[in-house]
Design brief:
The chain is of the alpha+beta class. The chain contains 26 helices and 18 strands. Strands 3-2-1-6-5-4 form a six-stranded antiparallel beta sheet, with helices on both faces. Strands 9-8-7-12-11-10 form a six-stranded antiparallel beta sheet, sandwiched between helices.
């Protein structure tokens, strides 16, 4: 800037000042040479406005703020001081000094608030629309995590960004790690060309972001091109890409704009991943329920798919009625499970080709109350209970099981009643052919006000007549295949009935999926009781290595046992997704590792979902040839349902752990640190044992960020966290407190042991390296501070404070004592 200023003065110096000093005369007329002095500030002003070298609006705003504030304060101060002086003198006879002191105190307390109030009004005055949108965008970014629909999240974000920034277009691309490319998710403004709807790894936009390791701004671009590119990163991994066209006012994006968008992008990256995780968990949860419903439908070939269709019809009616999203989803779930009570109705009654006698009809009528009772045992399904129980109530009160009428019937139940009737009349049954769509429409209309809620019927007719009716709802789960070994087609064998009984029992455990380990324990206990043959184990695939990890607790169980991918019978079943039954383990190459085991026969089936193996159920016996074809069929049917429920449980566990872990490093977060420390302190007090806490600060992280970029700094933090975890014991807790600080809780360690442990940490970090952008870099050094219970306190905040103070003492002394920290550990 200084050099540019000097160069801009050169014409004036060469043609005016220098000739006059050397030759004593002007080479150029003075009015012409002074023209450069006029053009200099004009060119500076243009450069500042065009390229945003300085934020003139900011300086003007502040100038107006402080000028206004000074004028207001001066006028108010003079007026009030005059009045206060008169009042003080009249009342007390004191000098005006007292009045001045009082007024000074009042303005000292109120001046700052007044300044903020005036500044907000000036901001609105200068750029009211942009100011309001910026406030909305900041507030929206803070509540993003509450939006669980990814599409709604994306659409709302780009709309607000477009309004705030005044861009010709805003586009959001979602990253596909499998293809290493970005796919257009949503946009506002100018629609991108077809070739720009997918950004491959070698696309110029992607390469620019990777090279810059942060936001990229391009000047002087066409309205359809990208003027600003902001990457969305979470846990060091690409999530999405936000691109903006140039501003409509032909100005570049300021540093203030980029800072705001970076903040929003960080929040959006986290919210996007959370929304996608929730969506997948919800889909799997629904898939599990659909599988259970399909299991019930499978008892009768005529009603196969009935529950899925009723759920789709009920959803369409609920949407037409304008019900809230959560209520729509509840009605859809209830539609899936409205006939769950039929699991207790004998097959002979369900499949009877003729009319039912009074006893059989009474038995059928019990299915609504039985279904409600089944669901009531599961807290997660409680909202569905009244809808399932009352879906056979009539609007005039002549239905069952409770004879409710009018608006006493839950609206969701009234919706399911219409959807159920429509599907019944448009599908064949053992005792008649389907009457058809027109007959069904006419019958439902005829019964409006007697059997059906008129409001629901009106919504049904609008949807049906408009052509929005889901005639053939998409099946979201493969039909439950019940192996048919009976020559009488359509009959349910003993194996099938036994499988459905166990599947039903597993479905009752859906409420326990929020605790993965407890759920696995309950499921394996159930399978052992119900199958009753051999020694049952359950393995789950480690997503990082592909190995199978034993999950089953109890005496002689395999909890923690790791089976390498592809090895042994369990590994073979996981790899090929095929059940395997071994009559004699001594004669099969897949079970040769069991030669010294007392187990002589084995059966294993895969737990697979969406073409992926997530685990294996293995049963072994001490006797040769124990397991039959029926046993294999039984376990295969059970595995279909169990795989989906287990994945739901795993996703619940992942969500729960995400709330406890730092998103960047994977160690415990700040909140979890205090919770674990409180628990550890309580245990130490109860058992009269010591406990130590070490606080750790990463030295020179800012220098790493400035030199190599923030992505490299994040990689360094992840590597340090991994090193700390590697050095810790199983009972220790590593946490990231925020920024470049970590903490470690060390149960059972006193101060001296904590010092020796800290020495080991310093050595491990000093010899460690990490990879970033194809380079191997040394880990930044660390500073430590330790505190111990009971010597330094008996509350979490006391121990953290003491350790923190000692850490900063060590950090201050590091230039002279770079390796020793024992002097600062106590």
């Amino acid at each position: 800037m200084t050099l540019g200023s000097l160069l801009s003065l050169m014409p004036f110096i060469l043609f005016s000042m220098l000739p006059r000093m050397v030759l004593g005369r002007d080479l150029v007329r003075p009015e012409i040479s002074t023209l450069s002095l006029v053009l200099i500030p004009a060119s500076f002003a243009y450069a500042i406005l065009r390229y945003q070298i300085m934020d003139l609006r900011l300086y003007i705003r502040r100038g107006v703020v402080y000028s206004t504030l000074v004028a207001l304060i001066t006028g108010a101060y003079a007026l009030l001081l005059f009045a206060a002086t008169l009042f003080v003198k009249d009342q007390t006879g004191a000098s005006s000094v007292v009045a001045v002191a009082i007024m000074s105190a009042v303005f000292a307390l109120g001046g700052d608030r007044l300044r903020h109030a005036v500044q907000r009004q000036i901001d609105r005055l200068f750029d009211r629309r942009s100011y309001d949108y910026r406030q909305q965008l900041l507030e929206f970014s803070q509540r993003m995590n509450g939006i669980l629909d990814p599409d709604e999240l994306a659409d709302s974000t780009v709309q607000l960004i477009s309004q705030t920034m005044g861009a010709t277009h805003v586009r959001l691309y979602l990253y596909d790690p499998a293809m290493r490319s970005y796919h257009l998710w949503t946009w506002v403004g100018i629609e991108p060309d077809p070739e720009d709807q997918t950004l491959g790894p070698h696309h110029s936009v992607v390469e620019a972001v990777q090279e810059a390791e942060g936001p990229v701004q391009n000047l002087d671009v066409d309205p359809a091109d990208e003027a600003l590119i902001v990457p969305l990163i979470n846990k060091g991994q690409a999530v999405a890409l936000l691109t903006l066209g140039p501003k409509r006012v032909d100005l570049p994006y300021t540093s203030e704009d980029q800072a705001l968008l970076s903040t929003v992008a960080n929040q959006l990256a986290i919210a996007t991943e959370n929304a996608q995780l929730y969506g997948r968990m919800r889909d799997l949860y629904l898939s599990g329920i659909r599988t259970l419903a399909a299991t019930v439908d499978a008892k009768d070939s005529y009603t196969r798919g009935h529950s899925e269709r009723v759920a789709a019809y009920a959803r369409a009616i609920a949407v037409e009625l304008g019900l809230p999203q959560l209520e729509v989803e509840t009605i859809e779930l209830a539609g899936l499970l409205h006939d769950i009570g039929k699991i207790g109705v004998p097959d002979l009654v369900l499949q009877k080709p003729g009319r039912l006698d009074p006893d059989e009809r009474a038995l059928i009528m019990e299915h609504a109350a039985l279904g409600a009772k089944i669901l009531a045992d599961n807290l997660a399904l409680m909202p569905l209970v009244p809808l399932v129980r009352h879906h056979h109530e009539w609007y005039d009160g002549s239905g069952y099981p409770d004879g409710l009428s009018g608006d006493d019937i839950p609206l969701g139940a009234a919706i399911i009643a219409v959807a159920d009737t429509y599907d019944t009349m448009t599908t064949d049954r053992p005792y008649r052919k389907a009457p058809g769509r027109e007959r069904a429409r006419a019958e439902i209309l005829r019964c409006s006000g007697t059997q059906f809620n008129p409001r629901v019927v009106a919504a049904f007719l609008r949807t049906l007549d408009r052509g929005d009716w889901p005639e053939h709802p998409q099946q979201n789960v493969s039909p439950v295949v019940l192996p048919n070994r009976d020559p009488m087609a359509g009959r349910i064998t003993a194996v099938d009935a036994r499988a459905m009984h166990i599947v039903y029992k597993v479905a009752q455990m859906i409420g326990g999926v929020t605790d993965l380990s407890a759920f696995i324990t309950d499921v394996t206990d159930l399978l052992r009781r119900e199958i009753g043959v051999g020694h049952l184990e359950l393995y789950l695939v480690d997503p990082e290595t592909g190995d199978l990890l034993g999950q089953t607790p109890g005496p002689g169980a395999v909890t923690g046992v790791r089976v390498p991918a592809g090895q042994g019978l369990v590994g073979w079943v996981a790899r090929y997704q095929t059940p395997a039954r071994v009559a004699d383990t001594h004669n099969d190459v897949r079970t040769m590792s069991m030669a010294t085991s007392p187990m002589r026969s084995a059966l294993a089936v895969p737990l697979a979902i969406d073409g992926r193996t997530i685990g294996v159920i293995s049963v072994e016996s001490r006797r040769v040839g124990v397991f039959t074809e029926n046993d294999e069929a039984l376990l295969t049917i059970i595995a279909q349902q169990l795989a989906q429920v287990i994945e739901v449980a795993q996703l619940h566990d992942q969500v729960k752990r995400s709330a406890m872990l730092d998103s960047l490093t994977g160690v415990a977060n700040h909140r979890t640190l205090y919770e674990r420390l409180e628990e550890a302190l309580n245990a130490a007090k109860a058992n009269d044992e010591p406990l130590a806490v070490i606080m750790i600060d990463v030295d020179g992280l800012k220098a790493t960020n400035d030199t190599h970029g923030h992505i490299t700094g994040d990689a360094a933090l992840r590597a340090i966290a991994a090193t700390l975890r590697h050095e810790c014991r199983r009972q220790d807790t590593v946490a990231r407190c925020g920024g470049d600080e970590f903490a470690i809780i060390l149960p059972g360690m006193d101060q001296a042991e904590a010092v020796r442990f800290g020495d080991r940490l310093i050595e491990a970090i000093a010899s460690g390296t990490f990879e970033a952008n194809g380079r191997t870099l040394p880990l930044p050094s660390i500073s430590l501070g330790a505190a111990a219970y009971p010597a330094d306190g008996d509350r979490p905040v006391e121990l953290i404070t003491v350790a923190d103070q000692r850490m900063y003492r060590h950090k201050a002394a590091r230039p002279t004592v770079p390796r020793s920290w024992s002097l600062y550990a106590s």
